[in-house]
Design brief:
This protein has 131 residues and is an all-beta fold. It contains no helices and nine strands. It has an eight-stranded antiparallel beta barrel. It is globular, with a radius of gyration of 15 Å.
Length: 131
């Protein structure tokens, strides 16, 4: 059965030392989720900038710990984002078999929206055998 979760989140990105001089950046991620997902997360992001305005990419992994619609546990999200001259595509997926506790078997996709300086998420998920 597929479920829907939504809410807001606060995020703190902290720049880390660069490991190259060709536009590669590294940041740590600290988030606090509110709403249907009451959790914190920590992760790392790599970004690549180009010489063309509005073109870049990022990948990230973050470990989320807390409760999802009252079920306690943890899981890992994988991000892949690409911008081509201002047109973006973002995929955020649960890493297979990363769910623990009452979130074992979790699969799903998350979308992020930024509206009026607020970060919002929508999370479509399934708990497989655990539901």
């Amino acid at each position: 059965m597929t479920y829907q979760a939504s809410g807001t989140f606060d995020v703190k990105l902290t720049q880390q030392p660069a490991t190259s001089d060709w536009g590669l950046g590294r940041l740590t991620i600290d988030k606090q989720f509110h709403g249907d997902l009451l959790a914190t997360s920590a992760g790392e992001m790599l970004s690549a900038m180009t010489g063309v305005a509005g073109s870049a990419a990022y990948v990230a992994l973050e470990r989320v710990s807390g409760s999802l619609h009252g079920r306690r546990g943890a899981f890992t999200l994988q991000h892949t984002g690409v911008m081509k001259r201002g047109e973006g595509q973002l995929t955020i997926s649960v890493v297979p078999d990363s769910g623990e506790g009452e979130l074992a078997g979790l699969t799903g996709q998350m979308t992020i929206r930024i509206e009026a300086d607020a970060h919002n998420y929508d999370f479509e998920y399934d708990l497989g055998q655990a539901s």
